[in-house]
Recover the amino acids of this structure.
């Protein structure tokens, strides 16, 4: 994998560290408020921030996922002053637990209905988690964004094609990884937030503005 | 009376923000640690009057560090400073024996109030 | 330019409601497709008019948008529509209700606080019909109305996945019309086509909706039975056998009766491919054919 020589120029260690803390704050608030909507306790890992090139992004993502495929991948993009993508990875079998968690199961379901409900649960939880985390992040940074509908893929190796087309091979992306665990439901997964190079400038400014309040 | 403060947080930025929020007139010695395990070591060696402890940290998280610190000194004043503000989390740290919980990001007001409460508690403990 | 006029004439339903679910705006499209006008509904609870919305999923998503300012999506899904409405369009649709795609989003005040929600409702009935037709075109065998072979492969893969992942059983019934070549030779191909159609239809009309009947080859059919063991599958095969033997066709030479042979098998641990799944019932069918026809053989 190419080590980005000038990565520090684009986004300094200092800025990475601020972003990490801002992520920590916004995700923490997000899950606390999420608990009001879905009755869950979520344990979040320390967010880790890396810079990768567009062409290495897919490999980088796959390397960071430590659960065995096949898995459920939910992909969603957001746009505004901050543009990017969220990828959420849930292990196989989680769709059943999530459907139960939402209380969506009904009696006497045929397999087709059941699959439809399970896919629905994954998409809905994905959409709400993305909305909560990204929503809070831009909220902390005093901005709003708009979202596209989530896309679900249940596969051994998700394609993750969309961002490649839009991010571009040569560009630099900020990749934030957080592991989360739905306590008491034995559901764990990954949350990746990817932003494109155009957002970098706004991001830096917003982060510095955030620090200025102290 | 408040002479030594220990801050445990994996994020240098969080530590910086917290220090900025502390009352400027405070004349104290600081010690910093970047995870629960390191924090616990510092706690034993440094014997701080007041500890600010994050929850989400690598190696040893804040829950465990809090428990261990209170095993060492059950009167220790530990203020949890965390972004994890889920109700169940707040309930848990308080029942474990945290002195206070402050939500991230902290502000000058909340930190000032927390420090005042800690100082009052120290006076109270000294009297009794 | 008065934007409210645009909102009122646009070919999308738009409504807004506050944190108490009281309707604040109801555009022209909503008025013309529902039975309610703005005068009746504005200021009243949305649930007074659409009690079906008072379900966990809708409430959960509204809460999420109110809290985080995200968008909630209710994509077109033949089982779920937010606002029960009559379908429109020039041609008659197979849908009893309008198929919709809805989005819920936040509306903020000058302090950037979320004070109410909007819903956009798009009529997807025509698109759903098109999709339905496309599915028929690509998945069905045009002569018999059964699924085509490509669909069969897809269904078996899907069932195999469910079996491997969740240990859900399924069975396979292979069906072959006896002496079909003779029928064609004696009575002509059109008559043969008639036989294929009738056999396919009578099987389709006499099984659970969940089962999938596909045309496997010339006069060969294959039926996939999810959640069914060998016992259930052989019972269905026997029912099919009697049904087909009871069919009577009229040709120029007089009434014609036909029979069919059946091979039945259920999925097993070591089956890893579509071919492996089909081999056992196929072998059983072969034995039925070579041991007298008009019978069912269960795979060993």
């Amino acid at each position: 994998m190419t080590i980005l020589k000038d990565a520090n120029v684009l986004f300094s260690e200092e800025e990475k560290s601020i972003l990490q803390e801002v992520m920590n704050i916004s995700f923490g608030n997000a899950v606390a408020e999420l608990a009001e909507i879905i009755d869950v306790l979520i344990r979040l890992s320390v967010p880790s921030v890396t810079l990768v090139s567009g062409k290495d992004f897919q490999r980088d993502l796959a390397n960071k996922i430590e659960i065995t495929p096949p898995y459920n991948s939910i992909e969603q993009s957001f746009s505004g002053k901050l543009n990017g993508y969220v990828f959420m990875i849930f292990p196989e079998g989680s769709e059943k637990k999530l459907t139960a968690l939402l209380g969506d199961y009904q009696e006497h379901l045929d397999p087709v209905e059941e699959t439809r409900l399970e896919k629905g649960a994954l998409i809905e939880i994905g959409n709400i988690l993305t909305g909560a985390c990204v929503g809070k992040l831009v909220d902390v940074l005093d901005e709003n964004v708009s979202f596209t509908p989530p896309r679900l893929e249940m596969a051994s190796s998700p394609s993750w094609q969309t961002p490649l087309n839009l991010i571009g091979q040569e560009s630099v992306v900020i990749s934030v990884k957080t592991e989360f665990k739905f306590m008491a439901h034995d559901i764990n997964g990954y949350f990746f937030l990817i932003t494109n190079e155009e957002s970098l400038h706004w991001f830096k400014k917003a982060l510095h503005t955030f620090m200025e309040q102290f | 009376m408040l002479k030594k403060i220990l801050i445990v947080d994996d994020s240098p930025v969080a530590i910086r923000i917290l220090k900025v929020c502390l009352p400027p007139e405070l004349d104290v010695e600081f010690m910093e640690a970047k995870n629960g395990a390191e924090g616990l070591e510092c706690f034993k060696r440094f014997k701080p009057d007041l500890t600010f402890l994050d929850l989400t940290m690598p190696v040893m998280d804040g829950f465990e560090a809090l428990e261990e610190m209170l095993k060492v000194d059950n009167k220790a004043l530990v203020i949890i400073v965390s972004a994890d503000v889920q109700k169940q989390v707040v309930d848990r740290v308080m029942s474990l024996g945290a002195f206070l919980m402050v939500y991230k990001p902290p502000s000058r007001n909340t930190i000032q109030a927390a420090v005042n409460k800690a100082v009052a508690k120290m006076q109270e403990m000294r009297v009794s | 330019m008065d934007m409210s006029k645009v909102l009122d004439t646009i070919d999308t339903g738009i409504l807004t409601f506050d944190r108490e679910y009281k309707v604040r705006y109801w555009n022209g499209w909503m008025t013309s497709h529902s039975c309610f006008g703005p005068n009746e509904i504005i200021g009243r609870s949305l649930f007074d008019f659409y009690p079906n919305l008072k379900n966990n999923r809708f409430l959960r998503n509204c809460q999420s948008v109110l809290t985080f300012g995200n968008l909630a999506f209710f994509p077109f899904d033949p089982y779920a529509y937010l606002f029960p409405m009559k379908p429109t369009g020039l041609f008659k649709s197979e849908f009893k209700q309008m198929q919709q795609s809805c989005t819920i989003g936040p509306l903020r005040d000058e302090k950037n606080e979320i004070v109410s929600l909007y819903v956009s409702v798009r009529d997807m009935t025509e698109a759903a019909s098109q999709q339905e037709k496309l599915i028929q075109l690509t998945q069905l065998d045009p002569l018999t109305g059964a699924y085509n072979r490509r669909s069969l492969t897809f269904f078996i893969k899907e069932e195999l996945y469910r079996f491997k992942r969740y240990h859900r059983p399924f069975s396979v019934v292979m069906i072959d019309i006896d002496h079909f070549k003779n029928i064609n030779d004696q009575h002509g191909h059109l008559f043969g086509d008639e036989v294929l159609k009738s056999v396919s239809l009578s099987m389709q009309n006499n099984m659970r909706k969940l089962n999938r009947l596909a045309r496997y080859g010339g006069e060969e059919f294959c039926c996939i039975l999810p959640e069914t063991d060998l016992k259930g599958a052989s019972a269905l095969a026997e029912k099919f056998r009697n049904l087909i033997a009871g069919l009577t066709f009229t040709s120029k030479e007089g009434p014609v009766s036909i029979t069919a042979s059946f091979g039945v098998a259920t999925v097993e641990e070591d089956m890893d491919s579509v071919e492996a799944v089909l081999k056992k019932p196929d072998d059983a069918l072969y034995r039925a054919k070579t041991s007298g026809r008009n019978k069912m053989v269960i795979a060993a």
